[in-house]
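Dear colleague,

As promised, here are the two records you asked about, laid out in our usual form so they can be pasted straight into your sheet.

NAME FIELD: protein one
SEQUENCE, THEN STRUCTURE:
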Amino acid sequence: MEYAFLGGPGSGATLRLDYRAFAYAGKFVVGAPGKAVLRTPDGSPAVPEWKPDEPLPPAVEASAFDDDVVAAVSFSPDRTDPDCCRLRYVTVHVARRGEGLGPRLVDRTVSRLAADGYDRVKIAVNNPFAYAALYKCGFAYTGERTGIAELVLERPTAEVDGENGTAEVDGENGTAEVDGENGTAEVDGENGTAAVDGDSEAAARDESGGDRYRAGLRAFRDGDRDLDPVEREFVAARLEEGEERGGRDTREE
C-alpha cells in the first residue's frame, strides 16, 4: 500500500468510500477537511476478495466508490490554535482491520502535517482501548476533556516514532476508529484489546509519560460514563501493571 496526501484543509479533496466497508464514509465526501489515504499503487481494488453483507441500492453503482483505498483520515486546523491540527475521522476497511493500517496512516499524516508547519496534532478519545492504541502511537493525555467522557490527546509533530512500535487494536476483538466534531476515537466490537508492533527494547523509559498515561486511565475509571465490564477490566489491569513497573513508560509494552 502507498501513502497518498490528497490535499490539505480547504483543498476540496473528497473521497467516495463504500459505506458498507468504512465507518463514517459519508464524512469523507465533505471537501473542507484535508484528507490522506493508504491505497494500492496501481489503482486496483484494495480488498478484491471482500464480499459485502448487503447489496447497494439500485441507483448506486459500485464503480462510484474509490475501491483502491484501504484506510483514510481527515483533518483540519484547531479552531482556536493555528499551530495545532485535529484529526477528525480515521477509518479502515472492515476486512483489513487489526493490521496496524490506522496507526501507520496516522504516523505518515503527522509527518506531513509537520512539513506543513503544524507543531502539534490533537484527537479526542472516548474509550480506553482507543486511548491505549493512540498513546502507543505517540499521543499523550493533555488533562483536557471535551464532549461526553472524551479525553483530549496530543502529539508533537516532531516526535514521529517509527522504531519504538506502533499500536493497533486487535481486529477480532475490536478496532479503533475516529469520530466526532473534535475527532473522537471509538472501538468497533465488544472486546477491544490494544496490541503493539515494534521493538519494545527501543522504547524510552519516561516516568512522566507513564504518569500521564495512568492519569488518563483513571479519568476513564472515575468519569461520568459507566464503563462496560471489559473496559473496566482493561483499565484495572493497565493501572496495576503501571504500579508494578513503578512508573515505567507504558510504551515499552
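NAME FIELD: protein two
SEQUENCE, THEN STRUCTURE:
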Amino acid sequence: MIRSILLILLIAGFWKSSSAQKIDHLSSYSDIQSSNYFRFNYDNDLFAGTDQNYTQGFSFELVAPFLDANPVNHLFYRPNDFEIRYGIFVEHIAYTPANFELPEIQIGDRPFAAAIYLKSFMIATDRENARRLTSSVSVGMIGPAAFGDAMQTTIHKITGSKMPLGWRNQVKNDLVLTYEMGFEQQVIRLKDLFSLQAQANVAIGTLFTGAAVGMNMTFGILNSPFKPATNNQGFKLYAYAASIVNVIGYDATLQGGLLNDNNPYTIAAKDVERVTGQFNYGIVLQIKKVYLEYSRTALTKEFATGNSAKWGGIKLGFGF
C-alpha cells in the first residue's frame, strides 16, 4: 500500500506539467467488467447550461482480445501479475470562446480549437492489491483537419442555436502525439457499498503535457474493477465523485500546436494557469452487460483572463 501511494506521488510530481484525455474513460469508476465491450461517449457544455470553453466532445471505444496484437502495445509497461486488456479509442474535442457567434478574434478569450485522434490504450489490473495502471498513445490532428467548424455548425443548425462564425480564427493544423499513464490505488473499501481511491496521471505530448493527482470515491451498489468479473454481474447502481488538481505544462488548444506557429490568435504561455482544480461527479447504472453513465465536470479557469468551465456527458456501452 505504501509503495503504491509513493508511486502515485512520483507520477504526479515527475512531470511538472493535465490529463491528455478530455473524455475520461479510464478511471476505475467508469470501468466495464468485460474483456469485450463497445462504448459511446458524448460531452457537451449545454448539459451544464453554457456554450463556451470545452464545448463538445465525443468518442467511440472498443476493448477486445484481438487488439492484443496491436503493435502499439509494445510501447506500454506491462507489469507482471496484472490482468491486462487492450483497446482503441477515437476522440473528437472542440473549444470556443464565449462570443462564438462573432467573426472577429475574441482578444482575452480562448481561441477556437478542435482536435481528433486515435488512441491505443491498455488497462492493467492487480486485483489482489486493488490497484490499476493505464497507458495510452494518441495520434491525430489539431486544427481545421479536425472539422470542428462543420461539427458545431451542423449541431447549431439542428438545435436552432446561434451560428458559430469565428472558426476561421481557429488554431491551425498540427500534429497530435501524446503518451499518457495513470495509476489508481484503492485505499478504503466497505463491502460493495463504498470505496475510496487515490489517483495520479501524467501526459507528455503535443496536445497536452501535464500531470494530475487526486482522490475519487464511489458509493451505492458498486461495480468494483478490483474484484473478479464474475462477482460484478447483474444490477449495479452507484454514484461517484472525484477531486483533482491539474498541473499544466502545455495546452495546444490554448497555445497552438508545437510545430506550426502560424496561428491567428493564441494564449501566451505566461497567461496560462499552471494549476487548475477539477471536480467530476456522476451516476452509473449497469444492468448485466449494458452500461449507462451521466457525468458532470467543473473546472477552474485555465488562463488569466478566462473563467471557469463546466460541462456534462453521457456514456452508453455494452459488453459482448
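A couple of things worth noting about protein two: The chain has one domain: 2-319. Helices lie at 2-14, 148-159, 252-255.

Best,
R.
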